[in-house]
Backbone:
């Protein structure tokens, strides 16, 4: 049931947060309760108990055009009920497939009980401390794509902020080989997050340095910032106070940042802030 990633840049039409079995912490359990089938569209019904959503006609047509070219790359999820298959997640893909003229669609079939058990299992796994960031991102993506949960719902269920959930899920936009390296080398989310929006050439340039030199998240952020297209003047200014920032951070124990003619300190918590203020007085 593994679904590999797609080319980047198709986010508006095709989800980039596909669930890959290689990084799915509940893949083994899922295979015991799921059946991947090719179902007739006419045998599938929407869940009338779900709040009716507006489906933008233009967006559905755009997705239909993509489906004609690429096919349905992410199965919908259904449960069997009274001889029909009720949609749990993927109604948009189902509607677009009709517009595209398809007769069948790939679908993950589960019983309602197995669907509920798997959701609880994924939530429990997402709260484990030993998951790497890609496994965690995959767990979030699975809750979003196969259980119809919003980012707000996921955050509430796993006890994280929406910003944290979104940030972790963005790691799935990294190239597949980079995700594998991240897991193998045990690279942190903080270190890898600045690379999410980078082109593959830049990632290949900086990744060996991150690994061999043990770069911190801050050093990666600096590298990415200073390797964007800038004028020579702007680039000089960006490098101007790095040594001073590091010295201030070492002296006061808080991250220092010089922006233009402004010096700021970033504290992790109230205690660190109080300590910084006391040091500065």
Residues:
């Amino acid at each position: 049931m593994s679904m590999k990633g797609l080319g980047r840049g198709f986010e508006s039409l095709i989800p980039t947060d596909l669930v890959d079995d290689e990084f799915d912490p509940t893949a083994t359990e899922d295979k015991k309760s799921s059946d991947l089938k090719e179902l007739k569209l006419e045998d599938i019904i929407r869940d009338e108990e779900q709040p009716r959503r507006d489906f933008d006609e233009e967006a559905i047509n755009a997705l239909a055009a993509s489906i004609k070219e690429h096919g349905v790359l992410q199965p919908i999820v259904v449960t069997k009920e009274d001889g029909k298959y009720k949609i749990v997640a993927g109604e948009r893909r189902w509607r677009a497939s009709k517009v595209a003229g398809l007769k069948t669609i790939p679908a993950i079939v589960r019983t309602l009980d197995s669907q509920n058990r798997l959701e609880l299992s994924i939530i429990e796994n997402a709260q484990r401390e030993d998951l790497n960031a890609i496994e965690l991102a995959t767990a979030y993506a699975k809750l979003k794509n196969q259980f119809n949960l919003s980012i707000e719902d996921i955050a509430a269920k796993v006890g994280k902020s929406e910003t944290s959930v979104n940030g972790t899920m963005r790691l799935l936009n990294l190239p597949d080989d980079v995700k594998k390296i991240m897991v193998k080398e045990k690279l942190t989310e903080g270190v890898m997050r600045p690379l999410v929006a980078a082109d593959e050439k830049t990632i290949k340039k900086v990744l060996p340095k991150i690994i061999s030199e043990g770069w911190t998240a801050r050093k990666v952020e600096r590298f990415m910032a200073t390797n964007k297209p800038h004028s020579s003047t702007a680039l000089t200014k960006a490098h101007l106070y790095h040594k001073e920032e590091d010295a201030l951070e070492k002296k006061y124990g808080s991250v220092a940042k010089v922006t233009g003619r402004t010096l700021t300190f970033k504290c992790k918590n109230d205690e660190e802030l109080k300590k910084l203020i006391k040091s500065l007085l």
